[in-house]
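Sequence in, structure out. Go.
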Amino acid sequence: MNSTVQPQSSTMLFTFFEKKPLGYLFATVTFIVVVIFFNFLTNSFLYLYTDIGSDTATGFFPNFYGYVTYFGMHGIPTWTFTEGMGSNVFPAVFSNPMHILFFLFQPKAIPYVILFIAILKLYIAAYFFFRYFRLLDLSAFSSIVGSLLLTFSGFMILGGTWYLFSAEGMQFALFLFGIESFIRKRNVTAFVIAVALTAAQQPFNLFLISLFAVLYLTIRIIGDESKSFKELSLIFGKFILLGALGIGLSFVLFYANFNRVMESPRVSGEASYTESLSQKPFYEIASTVELQTTIYRLLSSDMAGAGNKYTGYINYLEGPMGYVGLLSLLLLAHTFKYLTKRQKIFFIIIFSIWLISSLFPYFRYAFWLFNGDYYRTYSFYFSFYIAFYAIKSLDIIFTVEKADFKPLIISAVVILAMALFNFESKVIANESMQILVLTFVILYVAIFFMMKEKSILQHLPKALLGLITLELAVFSYMTINDRGLLTIEQYTSKTGYFDYTKEAIAKIKSLDKSFFRIDKDYHSAWSKHVSFLDAMAQNYFGTETYNNFNQKYYVNFLAGMKVFDPKNEIATRWSIGLKHRYYLQIMANTRYRLCKSEWKGYESFGAELVDSVDKIKIYEYKNFVPFGSSYHAYITESEFAKLPIIHSDVMTLRAIVIADSLKKNYYDYEELKHSDTMALYPPEVIADYSKDIGSEHLKMKNFTQKLIEGTITLSTDKIVLITTPFDKGWKLEVDGKPHEIIIVNHGLIGIKLPKGNHEIKLEYGLRNLGISLLISGFSALMLIALILFNRKKIAKATA
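Output:
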């Protein structure tokens, strides 16, 4: 940077890279990409993991598969009955514009599109990281190196095997470029788009990126540019306005995502970690396992083991991700002597914050607003500063054509000690990585020592770039490939989501055109970790699901039915639905059960073996309750809570559960108490209960994922049960007029109707879609106007 104490000397060493810098950058990126993705590019494996990263195969893949299938049948995915008992999945894949590519191909091509997007993100990130460093007045060579270190950092590569984090890294590159573009050139486009992409993907990331921006802008404006706090506050104000414009630009996606996050149990429910983490003492020191892992993962993402062999803190994907190249660590201390007094203060502040928050996890929890014990973005931000200062140092070294060997040797010794010394035996060092770290550090030091030989000086930048490229390729290859991967043979055979379940479901659907749910006593994922999203990939209606932010009323329903403790955060994400709760399944319109086990206990719950496909047996519940069943009896939530599980399950076949406060509205309905139970429930009794509530049910004329139309004839005043979670997007019409939806059974949709014949129309629409589109459209026009105004201003100034 201009304000750094830059020694005056020749820049002849940089001439080679100044001619075609992007060509050299992309050639290097291409080499690394080919090396690390070779097994995928040659179709030996698919970019889906079956180890600790099996979220890719059990989460992302079935979701993408379900969305593409949905899009082909119903258009843009909104409400779907294939996730849990129904959920709004918008903006789904649209939260990342790249995911639109999925809809250009058949669902079976999804793994190949995933790979293409993964590679594309690296190229885009590399480009914007490079452009960012160039805006800092660094040489093309240093900018190429900085771009490579950040693009192939632990966060981008290890985090990229989880798909989401490489997208965040790409957005971060654009964000950095956007900040500097506005500071240097008053160009607003990149920053606004970066904020828009961040807001669309994950609203909470706006908070995280704002924290980063406050510190970064303070460093740049006060530390580097030596401006006043008044000038800093003005710049803050401008960036806040531009950020608001970015949020407005993606408001359609942001608003939907914001509601989804805020209404989930992890944020507004009992399952939040906020209380437990915020009550931990701030002076509590991190465990030795955590500290050892933090040190190891600065050297390599795999220093504590790769994949299932990982022995460090939390797990392989959620532990510290500090790796940003060994060269960064080697040159970090070298930077200090060239910083101004102000810059040295900020240097100390940044790494003091990192050291304190590493020693005392309370401050890392605070970074995440106490929502979880995460590293992720926290790691990447501090990794960035390591690379940020190291690249400044590198630029100075090759500008003055010599290195200061004292900090270099000290740094090398410290790195070697970090690799070889272990103070926690539970964290087992990867011996191969130790050897590689030692080798690369020695080679880096050797290159800098060779700067004494003027005859070979001009070749050293190329040699250094080659060594950096080799390190990043080797380390990234291990992170991506030394793992449990899905093979082509597995994907194309009758295994996983493509087992005989699809044939069984097709057979059922060919004979039964009504609404029904299916339960399975097995899971179809390829990994040892079970999948809760079989219904998404295999296109049937079930009750279980996995979602980081599950639908609020779905979770309330399951908690109210005593399926799990609502304070159990894990259970609210990995929801088993109504599995093993057979009377609840009957209430929820589950008609078929697919089984691979030999257990015949289902028959005691009214299930009858009706067919089979390969090794899959098809059972049908003879006590099946049709969709839109009706009740003339109710039980209050307080009375329902007193019932043991078996009795509460049966009670849902007799009465609707209502809030105690609504009891006064049902004076003409039959009220049941917790004492209205039997010691045992013979099959014929269950059959009578099912027949009673199913005898007068909704006869559907039209059913899609977003629209339910039908008629019902009631012999008395009743509550019609729609077995899908309540959502404010549902709009109800009865006999052509708007009608109130009531929440029953702790979270499902109820329709209170008088005796007689009724036409029912239940339609799902995105909340406040019109105003959201208006805000996004207006923001787009504002951005265009701002771009044109700036261009006119620049043209006038240069005329």
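Check: Confidence is low (pLDDT under 50) at residues 5-10. The CA atoms of residues 365 and 373 lie 6 Å apart.
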